[in-house]
Amino acid sequence: MLTDIEIAQAATLKPITEIAARVGLDADSIIPYGKYKAKLDHKLIRGSGPDGRLILVTAISPTPAGEGKTTTSVGLADALCALGKKTMLCLREPSLGPVFGIKGGAAGGGYAQVVPMEDINLHFTGDIHAIGTANNLLAAMIDNSIQQGNPLNIDPRRVTWKRCMDMNDRQLRFLVDGLGGKVNGTPREDGFDITVASEIMAIFCLATDLKDLKERLSRIVCAYTYDGKPVTAGDLGAAGAMTALLKDAIDPNLVQTLENNPAIIHGGPFANIAHGCNSVTATKLSLKLADYVVTEAGFGADLGAEKFLDIKCRYAGVAPSAVVLVATVRALKSHGGVAKADLGKPNAAAVRAGAANLERHIDNLKNGFGLPVCVAINAFPTDTAEEMAVIREVCEKSGVPCALSEVFAKGGEGGKELAQTVLSIMEDRPIRFTYPLEMPLAEKIEAVAKKIYRADGVSYAAAAKKTLDELEAMGYGKLPVCIAKTQYSFSDDAALKAAPTGFTMNVREVRLSAGAGFVVVICGSIMTMPGLPKHPAAMDIDCDENGRITGLF
Fold first, then answer.
1. pLDDT value of residue 103
2. What secondary structure does DSSP assign to 303-349, as a single string?
3. Predicted TM-score (pTM) above 0.85
4. Are 522 and 528 in contact (CB under 8 A)?
């Protein structure tokens, strides 16, 4: 069987000008990055005419078996195009951390991929590098201000801004820097985040134009003074230069699927530590260019979809007309207690036990948020008819349709049943948000914990509770909350599979993202700088003397 990269390298790509023409854009409307990639002017979101309809793809809680959310998104878009629907695919940019670590890239798989796959999964058009540079410019300007007489009276013990890099490197989580005497800075505890967890990435994905971007950047609270007052990037005079670094990156990236259908890939915050969806600019631009837009939210529906709906949709003024919930027999068996090595063996009883996870996600999306939902069964060759029947039975009991998705093996042709199911459920309804913005921060956290995760309650570390109280006092209490936790469970304990109950969410830390416009609530042991696994994917990636990359999935 061919690997993903072998399938991608064998594909016949069309010039990006032809792809742009599919959605009504001429050569003057695009900025080519080589023959098969281009940027689109972000100002195109102001175009006249009606918006298309949005389809959100999300999934059950992830397992080592994989769910195939991006693959399903790509295949669904190809299937809609094959049915004659003017459709745009809208995805996140991959981070190099997972690419060289364990999770993999974000270009889909099998015969449902976006291409050029190697470019997309590696440096692409440089957006993430620009975000990291803007982040680190602000970090340098904070420490320089302290060094140059400290005119803003910054307390070095209360610098909250971290440097970042787009790589998994646990060694950088906790540092002491500024060593070597006065000329080399002020010694203090510090650390790095992965770039996709930076507030700059969140701002980048929520901003609608350069003016909005600069205003958000200027509002970043990066430190506090000795008397407890917030210091912003605007106070440091950094926002203009940061905007200059991001002025090209804010333009969404146009590529194509294996079936030569248009796809925009732009922005990529992690859903377990940020809000986990592509940029508002990309989504709104896609809605101007197509009748149907397929987009995804990261990890399970308790993380990516909740934040997509409660944060992104609220700020952007958009709402999905349908939600696709991706599940696999293998993943449900994993939630039912089956070890990874045994997932290929038939076990309908384990599927039934693990289906509690699927049922809870359906309930949250359908009855909680009030949206039309269907389930996509992402097919594997080892699935049995009996196991599939369990999923169909669960969906029927929950009152939602389900469809078999064979896009990994068959591309758009294998997604036609799913596409027709999605079209049949589409309905424009208002989102029932998990909480009103007027609710105090602690009550918002409790609302997500109880309504979405089904926790009994929330406990706070002393420092986290103190920060919440301070943020309320400073006037940030009406911001939405962005909960960072493990993606593997509804709880903050990755070992609690399926649909756990009787647990308490443990809030370890609270961070203000004033520029992005939300409060990050860090639960359990989740890290904002991941580490590499025992056998990182980087060990299997190679490049020959002709520049041909191998081992990239």
1. 62
2. IIIHHIIIIIIHHHT--EEEEEEEE-HHHHHHHTT--GGGTTS--HH
3. yes
4. yes
Centre a 10 Å sphere on the Cβ of residue 135 and count the other Cβ atoms it contains.
25
Token pair 């620009």 is found at: 130
Over the stretch 387-402, which tens digit does the pLDDT of each residue have? 999 999 999 999 999 9
| Higher per-residue confidence, 506 vs 3 | 506
Task: Encode burial over 192-209: b for 16+ CB neighbours within 10 A, e otherwise.
Answer: bbbbbbbbbbbbbbbbbe
φ and ψ at residue 153, rounded to 5 degrees: 60, 40
Q: Give 3-state DSSP helix, strand, coil % of the chain, rounded to 5.
A: 40, 20, 40
The answer to whether the peptide bond before residue 187 is cis (omega within 30 degrees of 0) is: no
Q: Highest-confidence range of 100-104, 105-109, 240-244, 338-342, by mean pLDDT? A: 240-244
The pLDDT of residue 271 is 77
516 close to 307: Cβ distance less than 8 angstroms: no
Q: For 243, which DSSP code?
A: H
- 356 backbone dihedrals φ, ψ, rounded to 5°: -60, -35
Angle made by CA atoms 128, 134, 138, in degrees to the nearest 5 = 145
What phi-psi label fits residue 120: left (phi over 0), alpha (psi between -120 and 50 degrees) or beta?
Answer: alpha
Tens digits of per-residue pLDDT, 42-89? 988 887 778 999 999 999 999 876 789 999 999 999 999 999 999 999
Return the residue matching tokens 């049995």: 384
Of 258, 313, 305, 269, nearest to 12 by C-alpha is 258
DSSP assignments along 207-225, one per residue: --SHHHHHHHHHT-EEEEE
pLDDT tens per residue, range 3-24: 889 999 999 999 999 999 999 9
CA distance linking residue 117 with residue 256, whole number of Å: 10
Reading the block at residue 491, the tokens are 């709880």
Q: Evaluate whether 296 touches 57 at the Cβ level (below 8 Å).
A: yes
DSSP state of 300: S
Torsion of CA 3, 8, 9, 12, to 10 degrees: 140
Q: 217 near 515, Cβ under 8 Å?
A: yes
Query: Is the torsion defined by CA of 150, 154, 156, 160 positive or negative?
Result: negative
Q: Judge contact between 289 and 25, C-beta under 8 A.
A: yes
